[in-house]
């Protein structure tokens, strides 16, 4: 028997429509639609406060924010990164004419393995771009140590890490810059959107110029900047979303715990553990379908689909399998055994605030059903 209504891997949280009307009214009244208007400024400071960071620049999406972060730090040459991510991570390097150098991941966290970074450093290496995959923090201390030793910059792709904290507070404070995504599929969404977390006002100013074509004033352009500005409508929506984000994360936490309980005894299913975070955001629920599970990951994926349950294989294929990357020496599967295995086994189960306990039970039931 299959579910009548499809269950997707995620569903964006939306507050009641009538709550957004007063925000729209303000925009209609003042006629400021974009270019750093009042909602843009408000959301930047509200997010700084919520996230526990000093400076933040809003963007139209996470990808343009990544591209701009690399520009802001004038990164060139080679950048060490992970093959186990959404393709935008590596694309941001190609958009800057930078050569990605792929390094394998840690089998427990599925984040860039610091122990393998040093061997990939060459005289052309200028930076490291790790990803806090699924919102699980990277080993930020070990990565910083390597960066300091070799005089490299660190730009975190923190697209999944909204609100995540480790021992020292917000994980977004690590590295030279961190980049968030506020895409519809993220824990905190502004329809489309993103941000760069910057360490100081000077860097934020440069980033603000870069996202506005490089304009410094009406008649001065200092860099070939891009149009990366978040519009007032997205920023206003962000202000409203921020009010409910703690409840959103709490609801996700409940679903996460329910899955873990239901799947704990299922032979061959490994629920990915945390990476030592003190505050998590439960942005994804990845499981690994191990070799002792009765059917393959893809067979399980199809079985769920047959029940109208649309899990996703994030991150399969690996970035290094795409044509624009696979010719690079570091993209060779032999260089990336852990990532290759994870890509073969992983599947992200549906997780979003309005997913009911009953639906979670159904999904876990399909998975447990094979190993009975
Ligand atoms: N770095 C990392 C590590 C990232 O994961 C991402 C984005 C980025 C950088 C780039 O950030 P942005 O430039 O996107 O801000 C999705 C998202 O489009 C993408 O933002 C995200 N990562 C990636 C992991 O997932 P798809 O192609 O899987 O999305 P899609 O459209 O298949 O959506 C998945 C499901 O969500 C749908 O089956 C139904 C549901 N959904 C989706 C949308 C867009 C809705 O219910 N409503 C919606 O509006 O990439």
TrEMBL record:
Keyword terms of this UniProt record: Aminotransferase, Pyridoxal phosphate, Transferase
Residues that bear N6-(pyridoxal phosphate)lysine: 186
Active site annotation, chain numbering: 186 (proton acceptor)
GO-annotated biological processes: polysaccharide biosynthetic process
Pfam families, per database record: DegT_DnrJ_EryC1 (PF01041)
GO molecular function (one): pyridoxal phosphate binding
Keyword Transferase: yes
Xref: PANTHER family: PROTEIN RV3402C (PTHR30244:SF9), TRANSAMINASE (PTHR30244)
Similarity annotation: Belongs to the DegT/DnrJ/EryC1 family.
Name of protein: DegT/DnrJ/EryC1/StrS family aminotransferase
Taxonomic classification: Bacteria, Pseudomonadati, Pseudomonadota, Betaproteobacteria, Burkholderiales
């Amino acid at each position: 028997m299959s579910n009548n209504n499809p269950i997707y891997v995620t569903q964006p949280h939306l507050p009641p429509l009538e709550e957004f009307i007063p925000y729209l009214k303000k925009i209609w009244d003042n006629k400021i639609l974009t270019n750093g208007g009042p909602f843009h400024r408000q959301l930047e400071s509200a997010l700084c406060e919520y996230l526990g960071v000093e400076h933040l620049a809003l963007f139209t999406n996470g990808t343009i924010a990544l591209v701009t972060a690399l520009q802001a730090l004038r990164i060139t040459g080679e950048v060490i990164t992970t093959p186990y991510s959404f393709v935008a991570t590596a694309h941001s390097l190609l958009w800057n004419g930078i050569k990605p150098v792929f390094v394998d991941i840690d089998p427990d966290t599925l984040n860039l393995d610091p122990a393998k970074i040093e061997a990939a450093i060459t005289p052309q290496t200028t930076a490291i771009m790790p990803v806090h995959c699924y919102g699980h923090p990277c080993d930020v201390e070990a990565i910083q140590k390597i960066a300091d030793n070799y005089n490299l910059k660190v730009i975190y792709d923190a697209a999944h890490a909204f609100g995540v904290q480790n021992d020292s507070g917000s994980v977004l404070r690590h590295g030279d810059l961190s980049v968030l995504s506020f895409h519809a599929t993220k824990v905190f969404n502004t329809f489309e959107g993103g941000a760069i977390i910057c360490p100081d006002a000077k860097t934020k100013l440069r980033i603000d110029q870069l996202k506005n074509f490089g304009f410094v004033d009406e008649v001065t352009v200092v860099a070939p900047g891009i149009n990366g500005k978040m519009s007032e409508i997205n920023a206003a929506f962000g202000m409203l979303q921020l009010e409910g984000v703690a409840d959103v994360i709490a609801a996700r936490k409940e679903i996460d715990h329910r899955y873990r309980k239901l799947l704990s005894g299922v032979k061959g299913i490994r629920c990915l553990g945390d990476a030592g975070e003190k505050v998590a955001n439960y942005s994804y629920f990845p499981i690994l379908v191990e070799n002792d599970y009765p059917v393959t990951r893809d067979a399980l994926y199809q079985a769920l689909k047959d029940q109208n349950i649309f899990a996703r294989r994030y991150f399969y294929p690996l970035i290094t399998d795409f044509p624009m990357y696979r010719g690079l020496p570091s993209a060779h599967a032999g260089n990336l055994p852990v990532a290759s295995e994870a890509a073969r086994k992983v599947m992200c189960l549906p997780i979003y605030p309005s997913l009911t306990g009953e639906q979670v039970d159904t999904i876990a039931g399909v998975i447990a059903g094979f190993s009975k």
